[in-house]
Design a protein that fits this description.
The protein is of the alpha+beta class and 809 residues long. The chain is built from 25 helices and 24 strands. The N and C termini lie far apart (108 Å). 31% of the residues are buried.
């Protein structure tokens, strides 16, 4: 989080537990850097840092003195790759030309920025080079890092206090801050810190460990985009469920395979094999298959990884190095998966005695019917949870992308670094407007998707003197029209009065007065959004007056002349914030927004760049499409959705493979019944329904159990998003999932039956035929037909009955 300039070393003097401090400022815009030969350096991300940077962090300085290389003004440390590219003969002491022909001196060479850090840099510049806006205790714009002395308990709770949830060291920092900042607080708020606290306001200082920033920090104004631990948990959970589905499949397939190995197992037991040895054999088979699968998976990962890097635009170190670091976890998962998959078949058949195995082979299968049903239910329960959760992620992404953001983001080209235009801005504006496809142009301090300033305001004649923190955007008269924003009443543009009084002013009688003078200055007209009206509780916003306190104690008064409809200045991950539009100040106008009649082409952009380079040759041309830039905010959700969709297909495919294995198993146990039904005239349709009825009942039961669970998981995941879709009721969801799963299940069952040409002679004679032999049809020429067997059986029974009758007679 960003803090005041005085904060880092001011508190270091007051809190003895602090060992070292460092301040960092990230340049939000691209700065033009050139060598003395005129070559443009590729340095999109500059960090302005204190001289304590290398003492605080573990970045390796390859050349230069870590204690002094960043201590002087206009000093820069470049990465190793840049030094090798542009300064092969040696970089130390060479000059780099910055904007306005300012020379920076290379004082060091640092290792290239590692990928696994939130402090991504293209080069490091001394913080003293940066002109800090002020040296206040209450203005926050620097990232501040502390290293505490060994032995300091960072988790020790603070004594009883009104804030709660703070540690002892955080309370010490807060007390030191209030002691130092009290004069400024009293000057700016016209009240003491205690009075400020009694109104429900607090200055709260919270510390955050660096190692938790990347996964667990989602504060405003982060130095770089962090990962989301919830996303990783979702993907990890889906992966785990797929592994469990595969393990269940293996157990079912192994059990089906054991139907043909019961005689082998019985004979081995008669010959003296122990149950433990046979269980080890089955476990060894499953573990071997698991590690073979692991080898094939690693080959697929190695082949697909480069394509994934291009597709999702991420960089990482060598894949082999990453896999080597994770090898204990990977091999552990493979081992556990093999054991889990082999436990059921290993201890199912081996628990029977040899006599039971040899005399009652056909009874072994049905005994496990209940457990196999549970496994099938678990399979499809996991599959439904994955499918429903994946559909929620995908639908949420589509909902966000299709929802209106409150302005027209299309056909907008935004130029950065516009403050460098200076006196040439008017001519640049006219030349851009003369381009054939340009319809409007606007200057502003910020645009949607970029950082925006925040200031504290008060309402006039407010006895409570309540503070209201509003986002502030300095914009010209054309901004709202250029972005297609709409008013709910009153004015149609932002009035163009200057936002900077030429002389210090103070408030008196709802007007502005020059200090030590009776001259009255008119309030400045501004526009606010609906959220600001709601936030400040303004019943009649148009004509209401606001006051902003300046750091020197003076005040600026504003009059609300219009209210614009709410729009999303930030992503849908954040709620709409209260905002005020102030009249444009040229030195704050970083962005130029150009509206085209159609999507700007490469030719249009080239024309704009040409004009820019002619009117502003010392500033880097940096542009982006507003629609593309806003889409980047949802890169993580889009990538997560695509991966989750792929996982869901894997899940349903593996589950249907398990269903097929179950049908093969059922076919083995019911071969005689199927053969007799064939002889008696049963058709394929009746047999398919007979075999699938039981399985489809399990699928329906799994759906009824899984949908409430998946529904609650999806609600929990969506609860963290302020803009979210409304989930359908579990009953509707159950119907939808059944409509999805039943065709898959019926197709699997029907396909399994079509692969099995059932012949009556096959089922009566060959009791121990394997499922794959049944599918292929077997060698039916070696067996007598079923009708002959039935006739012979009837004749034998009749002959026996006649003999019995004769004896009786």
């Amino acid at each position: 989080m960003q803090l005041p300039p005085k904060f880092a070393f001011g508190l270091k003097k007051r809190v003895p537990e602090i060992e070292q401090a460092c301040r960092v400022s990230k340049s939000e815009r691209k700065i033009l850097l050139k060598t003395q030969n005129g070559e443009i350096l590729n340095a999109p991300s500059l960090l302005f840092v204190d001289s304590t940077f290398f003492d605080m962090f573990g970045f390796k300085l390859l050349q230069g003195n870590p204690a002094t290389c960043l201590s002087k003004e206009k000093s820069i440390v470049i990465p190793e790759s840049m030094a090798k590219t542009y300064y092969p003969e040696g970089a130390i002491g060479k000059k780099i030309i910055s904007e306005n022909d300012t020379e920076w001196t290379i004082t060091g060479v640092v290792q290239d920025c590692p990928y696994n850090t939130h402090m991504q840099y293209s080069a490091l510049v001394s913080l003293s080079t940066l002109e800090l806006p002020d040296n206040s205790w209450l203005t926050s714009f620097l990232y501040t890092y502390y290293r505490f002395k060994p032995g300091v308990d960072m988790n020790k709770p603070a004594p009883q206090n009104d804030i709660g949830g703070v540690t002892n060291i955080e309370m010490k920092l807060q007390s030191a801050f209030l002691d130092a900042a009290t004069p400024e607080i009293e000057q700016n708020t016209k009240m003491t810190p205690q009075e400020f606290h009694n109104m429900g306001n607090n200055f709260v200082i919270k510390l955050q460990q660096i190692r938790r920033i990347h996964l667990f920090s989602h504060l405003n104004y982060e130095m770089s985009k962090n990962a989301n631990i919830e996303t990783l948990i979702v993907l990890g959970a889906i992966s785990l469920l797929i592994i469990l589905i595969a393990a269940i499949n293996y157990a079912n397939l192994s059990t089906a395979r054991l139907a043909g190995r019961t005689r082998e197992i019985g004979i081995r037991k008669l010959l003296g094999s122990h149950r433990r040895d046979m269980a080890r054999q089955f476990l060894a088979e499953s573990i071997t298959i698991s590690f073979i699968s692991l080898f094939l998976a690693l080959v697929i990962v190695e082949l697909a990884f480069p394509q994934l890097e291009k597709m999702y635009q991420f960089s990482s170190p060598s894949l082999s190095q990453s896999l080597l670091k994770l090898s204990p976890i990977i091999f552990g998962i493979a081992l556990i998966t093999g054991i889990l998959a082999g436990l059921y078949p290993a201890f199912y058949v081996t628990r029977f005695t040899p006599a039971t195995i040899l005399q009652n082979q056909k009874k072994l299968g049905p005994r496990a019917k209940g457990l196999r049903g549970v496994l099938v239910i678990l399979q499809f329960l996991f599959s439904i949870v994955i499918i429903y959760s994946t559909s929620t992620i995908y639908r949420q992404l589509n909902f966000i992308q299709s929802k209106s953001i409150g302005f027209d983001k299309n056909n907008l080209l935004v130029l950065d670094n516009s403050t460098g235009l200076g006196d040439n801005r008017a001519q640049f504006t006219e030349r851009i407007k003369d381009l054939p496809h340009v319809t409007d142009l606007s200057y502003s301090s910020s645009v949607p998707g970029q950082l925006i300033d925040m200031y504290t305001f008060h309402k006039t004649n407010d006895s409570t003197n309540q503070n209201y923190l509003l986002q502030v955007n300095w914009a010209d008269n054309h901004f709202l029209k250029t972005y297609g924003m709409h008013f709910i009443d009153s004015t149609k543009s932002i009035p163009g009065e200057s936002a900077e009084p030429k002389q210090p002013i103070s408030h008196s009688n709802d007007t502005l007065r020059h200090k030590n003078s009776k001259q009255v200055a008119q309030p400045i007209n501004v526009v606010v959004n609906e959220k600001a009206v709601q936030y400040m509780g303004l019943k009649n916003p148009v004509g209401a007056h606001l006051i902003r306190l300046l750091q020197n104690g003076d005040q600026v008064e504003y009059t609300i002349k219009g209210v614009v409809r709410n729009f999303h200045f930030e992503s849908f991950h954040e709620e709409v914030q209260p905002m005020v539009f102030l009249p444009e100040v040229p030195r704050f106008s970083r962005f130029t927004s150009i509206r085209f009649s159609s999507p700007p082409t490469d030719k249009d952009i080239a024309q704009v760049q040409k004009i820019w380079e002619e009117e502003n040759p010392t500033t880097l041309f940096s542009e982006f499409s507003m629609s593309d830039n806003l889409q980047k905010q949802y890169t993580e959700e889009r990538s997560t959705g695509e991966v989750a969709v792929a996982f869901s297909f894997f899940a349903i495919f593996i589950a249907c493979m398990g269903l097929y294995s179950l049908m093969a198993l059922i076919t083995v146990y019911r071969t005689k019944e199927i053969g007799i039904r064939k002889v008696l005239g049963a058709g394929t349709r009746e047999l398919v329904f007979l075999l699938s009825k039981e399985t489809l009942q399990l699928v329906i039961l799994a759906s009824l159990l899984a949908l409430p669970l998946a529904y609650q998981i999806s609600r929990l995941w969506l609860s963290s998003s302020p803009t979210r879709l409304i989930l359908a009721s579990p009953i509707i969801c159950s119907f939808q999932q059944l409509c999805l799963l039943l065709p898959y299940s019926l197709f699997t069952v029907s396909y399994g039956e079509q692969l099995m040409p059932i012949r009556p002679n096959l089922f009566v004679t060959n009791k121990n035929m394997m499922p794959h032999q049944i599918v292929r049809g077997g060698n039916h020429k070696d067996f007598p037909p079923l009708c002959c067997l039935l006739q012979e059986s009837i004749q034998t029974q009749t002959h026996t009955h006649s003999i019995n009758n004769s004896n009786t007679t």
